[in-house]
Amino acid sequence: MSILVDADTTFIIQGITGREAVNMARECLDYGSKLVGGVTPGRGGRDVHGVPVFDTVKEITSKQRVDASVISVPPAFVRDAAFEAVENGVKLIIIVTERIPRLEVAQIIEYARRHGARLIGPNCLGVISPGKTRVGGVGGAAAATRRAYQPGPIGVMSRSGGMTTEISNALTAAGLGQSTAVSIGGDAIIGSTYAELMPLFEADPDTKAIAIYSEPGGPMDAELARYVKERGTRLPIVAFMAGRFMDEMPGMRFGHAGTIVEGRADTTAEKIARLRDAGISVAEEISEIPGLVKQRLAEVGA
Amino acid sequence: MRFYEFEAKALLAKSGIPTSRGGTATTADDAARIAGEVGGDLVLKSQVLSGGRMKAGGVKFASTPEEARAAAAHILALEINGQAPRCVLVESKQPVAQEYYAGVTFDALAKLPVAIFSDMGGIDIEEVAEKHPQHVARVHFSTFQPLQEFRMKELVASLGISGNELTALTRIMTQLAQTFLRYGLTLAEINPLARLEDGKFIALDAHCDMEEEARDQQAAVLAELGIGREETRQARPPTPFEIKGAEVDASDHRGVAGRVVEFDGNLGCVIGAGGGSLTIFDALRKHGGRPANYCEIGGNPSVKKACELTKLILSKPGVEKICVIMNVVSNTRVDIVARGVIKGVIESGYDPAEKIAIFRIPGSWEDEGFKILEKYGVEYADRTVPMSEAARRAVQKVAR
User: Fold this and answer.
1) CA–CA min distance B273, chain A (Å)
2) Beta-bridge partners for A127
3) Strand partners, B294
4) Is the dihedral of CA B366, B371, B377, B382 positive or negative?
């Protein structure tokens, strides 16, 4: 099994005629994903690598099941695109676009919640369940994706799209495939946090352990630590925390929009201490992750 | 992007929140003139984007224009945490009966705006929340529905406040939330919010933050406040090197190759992407390296941008070599970055084999990229070499 997506997941790309989206469509098709349509207002009737393009989401959803939509439109158009997908019954919205104002992200999430839809991102590369499907740009070209991602027992969650692949690649090289890897997005407010995805991984019998990439800024690590402490989890978790140097530079923004040390609670030192206190292993380097995962798996006899 | 106090107060005043009478001055004479116009007891405050003004001597009181002139002269000459003041704010000093805290920000876990109110104002709200949690009330509100005033009433009333005070504070909390939503802020804070001896309320100090992402949408109000695009309002002003980096990044819309932050070291960094840069920077420092800069490349930048970025970094005095490291890339093409970086090194008058300490970017189009690197004799590493190991090899090639 997997979480969020599987081999049957049908999806569309909103903004499919954009330069990056055209590449993404090609890569998804090559990987075997069920990309059933695309939307670009004014471009209805064309096709992108054989995928039909429509003016509206409704034209697709009125004729067939659409499980997910990947939104890759310029920042100013993202909110409306998300509303359109949600309104037309799409239950999984993946926003690739970055630089969306926080207020609009909050509005998208509020709207999605009211309609029972889930948001991944924004500012993410999407979701992959190796060997089954990938929804979004995660992994890049299909051949490169197959090198970095292999099916297996590890659930991956990462605030960085690139590091989703780096970590999965390190796991794959060590013989540890992935059940599902989720690029959750690097913004200050994101649709699905580590703690919100944990119940999904716990409900997936194929997932045996979790690997996480995190960064300074935001309360998502604290939320995960609290989740693990209060509810417990059958899944051993190994985390890596980047941006340790930022502790010395409060108020400076590096990397993603959400990555800024604004208070004591945001520092990597605090975050690492909190994660360890919850029983989460924290790797000093990416290359240590596979070893720590194996060690934790052996401890629980998995 | 943080606003100066006088700007934050201007934003609040636009929503109807009462602020003190006064104005800003950049000279002592101007301050004396404003003091004469305002009259009575005065407070003069340094306008810097830094806390701790009071402690640093950046806040002074005066009763006459002459005293105001002397206080302003002192404040305008005073650097606070390395920042020279933008100007001095001269305001009427108010007789305060009680201080409150009023704030609105985003709760990243609830994913909603949250209004925070306390009847213990004038001190750091985090400290109040820690030591006197019963004096802090919070309420989340929708980003969709028209702002519901009753929620703010419930918020204020939950601390046992009633009568005229409740009515006045409800209005101010509502206006603050409106300011927050209207201007796409990430923080709108009045601390202290004062009840004066005559029962009126006034925002004595204010702090507003706007994120970079909202600046385009808020161009009108930013123009009204006189805040140009060049004002980054980071923790420190951008250096010329950083401004040039932003120019390289803006030169075309293809991908990212810029977002540089300047440091003192000897190892130039052509690194990416968002998370990868953080990871690599940590690794370089861990191995004893002295990075000359932070930067981000990603999203498949053009050859030209990668080239110009490389030239910029190599032009920085003290840079001995550059390292080119990224995580396993998806959409960025290895061959394009390789071509751009090599072009930049050659155009700077150096030999790529000598100047590039290591090139470790595996992923899309890596075979093509590695071929180019081999041709120029550049040491490169594939995905079997961890990022940290690549960083270690780079550090080894330059002086510690």
Assistant:
1) 7
2) A135, A182
3) B261
4) positive
CA pair distance B340, B330, nearest whole angstrom: 18
pLDDT tens-digit series, residues B203-213: 999 999 998 88
Q: Spell out a b/e string for B266-278, using b for 16 or more CB atoms within 10 Å of the CB, else e.
A: bbbbbbbbbbbbb
CB B247 within 8 A of CB B272: no
Per the listing, tokens 């003016």 go with A55
Using an 8 Å Cβ cutoff, are B170 and B156 in contact? yes
B389 reaches A (C-beta below 8 A): yes
User: Using CA atoms, how far apart are residues B322 and B339, in angstroms rounded to an integer?
Assistant: 15
Q: At what angle do helices B387-396 and B274-286 cross, to 10 degrees?
A: 50
- How many residues in chain A? 302
Residue A105 and residue A189 in contact, taking contact as beta carbons nearer than 8 Å: yes
Here the ipTM equals: 0.94
Q: Find out whether B343 and A32 touch, Cβ atoms under 8 Å.
A: no
- Residue B196, min C-alpha distance to chain A (Å): 32
Write down the pTM of the prediction. 0.94
**CA–CA separation, A121 and A71 (whole Å):** 10
- How far CA A7 is from CA of A64, A130, A135, A142, in Å, comes to 17, 10, 10, 15
Hey, which residues of A are catalytic here? 256
Beta-strand relationship, A10-14 and A68-71: parallel
How far apart CA B165 and CA B168 sit, in angstroms, is 5
Q: Do A101 and B211 touch (CB under 8 A)?
A: yes
Q: Are A155 and A209 in contact (CB under 8 A)?
A: yes
Helices A289-299 and A161-173 cross at an angle (nearest 10°) of 60
| Number of H-type helices and E-type strands within chain B | 15, 15
Helix axes B274-286, A161-173, angle to 10 degrees: 60
Give the DSSP H/E element, type plus range, for residue A102: helix A102-114
What pLDDT is stored for residue A177 in this prediction? 98
Nearest partner of A146 among A178, A174, A182, A185, judged by Cα: A178
Ranges under pLDDT 70 in chain B: 235, 400
Q: How many CB atoms lie within 10 A of CB A61?
A: 20
- The C-alpha atoms of residue B348 and residue B227 are separated, in whole angstroms, by 36
* Distance separating alpha carbons of residues A181 and A201, to the nearest angstrom: 10
A178-183 and A126-129 strand pairing: antiparallel
Which one of A100, A103, A221, A292 makes the best mutation probe of the B interface by having the most chain B beta carbons within 10 Å? A103
pLDDT band, residue A127 (cuts 50/70/90): very high
CA distances from A131 to A47, A184, A203 (A): 26, 20, 20
Which helix (H) or strand (E) segment holds residue B374: the answer is: helix B366-375
According to DSSP, the β-strands at B136-140 and B185-196 are: unpaired
- Cβ atoms within 10 A of the Cβ of B41, count? 14
